[in-house]
Amino acid sequence: MCTGGYCDLLRGIDVPLYAFAGGTATLSCTYDLRATRLYSLKWYHNYTEFYRYVPTERNRPINIQPSHKFSVIEEFRNDARVTITLAQLRVSASGQYRCEVIAEHPSFRTEAKSANMTVLREPLAPPVLVGAREIYEPTELIKIGCQPRRPYHPDHRPTLQWYLEGNQDIETLRRTFQECSSLRFTVKHSNDKQLPFQDVLKSPDSSGFNTCVCNKPTNLGLCLNGEVILPRLDQMIEL
Questions:
Q1: Fewer CB within 10 Å of terminal CB in the chain, N or C?
Q2: Can you tell me the distance from the alpha carbon of 81 to that of 91, in angstroms, rounded to the nearest whole number?
Q3: Where are the domains of the chain?
């Protein structure tokens, strides 16, 4: 893009949104030097430089800084693009990646673009539905929970979403159940990341989740002996 007689030097970057620990990630930086020459191209991870390309330094145009978070391999380089691969990724390699392009003398114009990448400990697995049955009594309250199949890292908490025949709208889900049954369905949403499940109030904390007794407005103060199985849920639906 050109405005006011100036054209963008940096056309764009390509950074994957997710990668896996022990695996690789390919990053690309594309630039346009038709109006000037390149002085340097640098890659940063969380503001720490780890790759530098300076065409005028003929003896050592490429400088790669060692890192305990990943190893760097230059895959491709020409007058319009530089592509690198990060290998042996660690979870600490998560964060912001920025490509910076500097034009040659006399302008030394500097442009940069950034994107975030999250390194997961292991590939995600399908979630597990908890508490669902095929048959319910007409007056029975239906409660279904959804939870990750495996424990997750506190910094990489997955997002669980409900779908019905490809539709993500939870209200559509409620109406569909209502139309196909004589039961009455309601949807309960979390409030400030807190959600009551049966007689337990579930809320997140630094270690994962915290639970306490939940006294609902309909509580009559009567107690029955019973057992409550409370799954480790990130998102629950009460129908």
A1: N
A2: 27
A3: 2-120, 125-239
